Amino acid sequence: MTTNKQKNPKQKTGFMKLFFSSCLGTIAGIIAICGIFMYFGIQASKSGTPTIKPNSVLKLNFNKSLPELSNNVSQSPYDIEGILAQSIGLFDICNLIDLAKEDDNIKGIYLDMSSLPQGWATSKVLRNKLLDFKESEKFILSYGTFYDQKSYYLASVASELYLHPQGGFSFTGFSAQMMYFKGLMDKLGITAQIFYAGKFKSATEPFRRKNMTPENRIQVTQYMSGMYDIYLQDLAKTRDVSAKELFRIADNALIREPIDAVKHKLVDATKYKDEVLDELREKLGTAEEDKMEVVSLKKYYSTKKDELKKHSDKDKVAIVYAEGNIVDGKGETGSIGGDKYASVIRKLRKDDKVKAIVMRVNSGGGSALASDIIWRELEKAKEQGIHIVTSMGDVAASGGYYIAANSEQIFAEKNTITGSIGVFGMIPNTRGLYENHLGLTMDTVKIGKFSMMSNMSTFFEFSEEEGKIIQDGVDQVYTTFKTRVSDGRGMSMEAVDSIAQGRVWLGNKALEIGLVDKIGGLDDAIEAVAGLANMEEYHVVNYPKTKSFEEKIMTALGDNHDDHDTKTQLLMELKGSIMSSEMNKIPEYSELMKTLQSVKEMRGIQMRMPYDIEIK
Question: Is-catalytic flag, 201?
Answer without folding.
Answer: yes
